[in-house]
Specification:
55% of the residues lie in helices and 0% in strands. By secondary structure, it is mostly helical.
């Protein structure tokens, strides 16, 4: 008898807890708070983007480092099975 009453109380407590959490989370007040926080974050992002400095293009008359380096083919041919021949 006590076991049944205890299980019913636990069920009622769990159901009421889930109901109040869902009711609070899905309320219109909570939705407006979430939207306000999203707008604040978006405003901070746009402000920080607008404050970024624009860098000038200073790539005129640059020195190209070793242009012939890319044309060299010094690849070493490697084979796994040749290791066993020695």
């Amino acid at each position: 008898m006590v076991k049944n009453i205890l299980s019913v109380l636990i069920f009622l407590f769990l159901f009421s807890f889930l109901f109040f959490v869902a009711n609070t989370y899905l309320s219109n007040n909570q939705k407006t708070l979430i939207n306000k926080k999203k707008e604040i974050v978006l405003q901070k992002i746009t402000d920080s983007i607008n404050e970024l400095p624009i860098l000038i293009n200073d790539t005129n008359n640059i020195i190209e480092f070793n242009p012939g380096f890319e044309n060299e083919n010094n690849k070493i041919k490697r084979s796994f099975w040749k290791l066993f021949e020695k």
